[in-house]
Amino acid sequence: MIKMKVILAFLVIFGVHSIDAFLTIRNNSFYYGEDRVFLSGANIAWINFAEDFGSGGYAKVRSSYESAIDDISSHGGNVIRVWLHADGRWSPKWDKDGFATGEDTQSLIDDLGLMLDYAASKNVFVFITLWTLEGTPKPMMHLYYQEDRLQSYLDRVLKPLVVALRDKKALAGWDLVNEPMGSISQTQVDPNPCYDTTHLKDSGAGWAGKTIDFRLVLKLINWHADAIKSVVPEALLSNAENGELLTTNVCEKCRDHYTDECLIGAGGRANGTIDFYAMHSYTWEGRFAPTSPFLHNFDFYKSKKPILMQEFSTTITESHNASWNYRHIYEGDYVGIMSWQYNQWGKWVDTKESMFEGMGAIRNLTSHGKINIKL
């Protein structure tokens, strides 16, 4: 009897998850329970940039998210990606010295919980992107430079959020920082190749206009990943990067900066690593880079971790054929494909018709993973 009480106490404190309660990785593939799955869908990203969740934000956009989830589900999709804090202008809440107060943590939990529950009811997974560096993130920039402020965010916001949402079946994983390449210099010299960026010369890196020492970016990612893993070890983590130059070693200008060694070396926290690569691939002047996933299968990269095609747009691909693009990534042994983006805002975006065509073309396939899944 005493032994049983101890076991029950352990279950209450630490939680137990049935094997089908969350996405896992085996053999460089995603699994849900015993089924290999392939994620097919689109980015929603945001309705009101950076302000969709927390402090009453979701009430203003809930119907838009639910409508988008309905659309994507009904056209054969099973995944969306949304942005949470983005540049930090709305959440988390800061005090006058830049410390996260945690006052909006419960509202973030409530809002994301509503969205995740609705997505689960439609059999749609969700990736949550925390921050972005494709533009200069002024409201949260201090987190890259001030460790005590960063730690306040991890302790008062991120850890409670991750714990509270850990049993949400729709939560596929956490995407830590979107496109760091936008805020990285092309001329940073460092004796450690993890932090040297001179290989990016003439690559377009640093388009946001203000650059951050790459070591600090990798440190922030390492601390975030370690914080999440410390409370929910099974959480799947990635970092969204623009192209192959910072995530692979397959070309002269390519260097994988997101290896376990680079991330742990930058931040010093042993569990602060990512589980898969989230890659973005767009054409330049109508052509893909020679190392683009749309020109190769997964095995070309000799990667030890899965690759998710997290952003692309058929509108500017070489083939202009959504069915071919979705099928190529599916048959190429990647773990998923997500069009940019459902709201059709910006210059490199797909039409809804195009993304739905792509999702529909592969919705019933099973040879490289099931798409029609039940959460």
Automatic annotation (TrEMBL):
Keywords: Hydrolase, Signal. Residues 1-21 form the signal peptide. GO terms for molecular function: hydrolase activity. InterPro entries: GH. This is Glycoside hydrolase family protein 5. It comes from Callosobruchus maculatus. The gene is GH5-1.
